[in-house]
Specification:
There is one protein chain. This protein has 11 helices and 7 strands. The protein is mostly helical. It folds into 3 domains: 165 residues, Lysozyme; 64 residues, no CATH class; 50 residues, Membrane-bound Lytic Murein Transglycosylase D, Chain A, CATH 3.10.350. The strands form 3 sheets. It has a 3-stranded antiparallel β-sheet, covered by helices on one side. A hairpin with a 2-residue loop joins strand 3 and strand 4. The relative contact order is 0.09.
């Protein structure tokens, strides 16, 4: 009788926990699916994958990292990150994890994190290939858990997350154009950019990436009278007030034909900061051989 009673009690406990977990998962999906869709439209990362990673890494938004640091994806301090962080035990007892102002920042940073070269092969997969993405993330070293890929796949399938992959909001030529633009995206100083091609304008680039032209020009510190030239970097987010950590307190030697604006774009930094660091007036024009400090 005792073994049967034990089995019955375990069954009751498990059944009582399932609705709570299902409710937490559904509440998370309802709250954040629009963010995952937005990231998919901008960076071509399947919304199902983003949601599954958020659910798994943050325990449906209930983990300490999610509640105390708005970190939904377990991303640690590294690269060019110079923002706040919290210390938690993970691979080491004093691992540092990035801290965000809100969940939207975490979702954006997750997309930027996946634009690194180690994950580049994933963007060759169809947007609907969540299985390939799951195994690709594991193979690229996103997580150490050997079952990580299957865990993501299970979450996606049990919660019907593939429905959000169909909400890209574009079809035909528009969809193909966004896919081509996503394949061209690069990273500088943790800011996404594309290199302008012959015939492209701020208008055409803004339309292709789904950003208002006025905002795109603001990101790149240009007004409506200036248009991009082939080969120039066009940033799709706000440039930084500091260069990457590895370049801080180094010097840039001006080459023939370079302008202060060109140099700022090269490093993904605000033009005003470059003038400020070097105590230069805004009408200063650099000459070949000048040395500019980077901070």
């Amino acid at each position: 009788m005792y073994p049967r009673l034990l089995v019955l009690l375990l069954t009751i406990c498990c059944c009582s926990l399932l609705p709570a977990q299902n409710t937490a998962y559904q509440e998370y999906i309802d709250k954040y699916h629009h963010m995952a869709i937005d990231q998919m439209r901008r960076y071509r990362i399947p919304a199902s994958i983003t949601l599954a990673q958020g659910l798994l890494e943050s325990n449906a938004g209930r983990s300490v990292l999610a509640t105390k640091a708005n970190n939904h994806f377990g991303i640690k301090v590294g690269g060019s990150w110079n923002g706040p962080y919290i210390v938690r035990s993970d691979d080491r007892p004093d691992d540092r994890f990035r801290k965000y102002r809100n969940a939207a920042e975490s979702y954006e940073d997750h997309s930027l994190f996946l634009l690194r070269p180690r994950y580049s092969n994933l963007f060759r997969l169809p947007i609907t290939d969540y299985v390939g993405w799951a195994h690709g993330l594991k193979a690229a070293g996103y997580a150490t858990n050997p079952a990580y890929a299957q865990l993501l796949i299970n979450i996606i399938e049990k919660n019907h997350l593939t429905q959000y992959d169909a909400m890209g909001g574009a079809s035909g030529k528009k969809k193909a154009g966004r896919q081509q633009m996503a394949e061209r995206m690069l990273l500088c100083n943790d800011v996404v950019y594309v290199v302008a091609q012959q015939g492209e304008t701020y208008t055409s680039i803004a339309k292709a990436v789904g950003i208002r032209e006025k905002r795109l020009r603001s990101y790149n510190e240009t007004d409506r009278h200036y248009d991009v030239q082939p080969g120039q970097r066009v940033f799709l987010g706000k440039k930084k007030s500091h260069v990457e950590p590895a370049l801080r307190h180094t010097f840039h030697t001006v080459k023939a034909g370079e302008t202060m604006y060109n140099i700022a774009q090269q490093y993904g930094i605000k033009l005003s900061c470059l003038y400020k660091w070097n105590r230069l007036p805004h009408d200063y024009y650099p000459t070949e051989g000048d040395c500019l400090i980077l901070k």
